[in-house]
Specification:
Elements: E1 2-6, H1 16-20, E2 25-27, E3 33-35, H2 43-51, E4 58-62, E5 65-66
Antiparallel strand pairs: 1-4, 2-3, 4-5
The chain binds iron/sulfur cluster.
Length: 68
C-alpha cells in the first residue's frame, strides 16, 4: 500500500489531483487537497497524479521509500 501525503502549505488548490484520481483525492473547503482513500486507485494512477501536481505538493511513499 502507498502512503500518500499532501502538503497543505505547498498545495495551490488547482484540483488536478482530484480530476486525475477522484476517489483518492478531494478538495477541502479551505482550498487544499486531502487524501480521502489511499486505496481508491491503482498505484500507477496515484503516482502519475502526484507527479503531475503543479506545486509538487504530493508525496508518495512505498515500502518506506519516497518515490514521488
Ligand atoms: S494537484 Fe497539487 S496543487 Fe493541485 S490540488 Fe492537488 S495537491 Fe494541490
Amino acid at each position: 500500500m502507498l502512503e500518500i501525503k499532501v502538503s497543505r502549505d505547498e498545495c495551490i488548490g488547482s484540483g488536478d489531483c482530484c480530476i486525475a484520481s477522484p476517489k483518492v483525492f478531494s478538495m477541502h473547503v479551505r482550498g487544499y487537497a486531502i487524501v480521502v482513500d489511499p486505496m481508491g486507485d491503482t498505484a500507477e494512477n496515484i503516482i502519475r497524479a502526484a507527479k503531475e501536481c503543479p506545486a509538487m505538493a504530493i508525496s508518495v511513499i512505498q515500502n518506506g521509500e519516497q518515490i514521488v
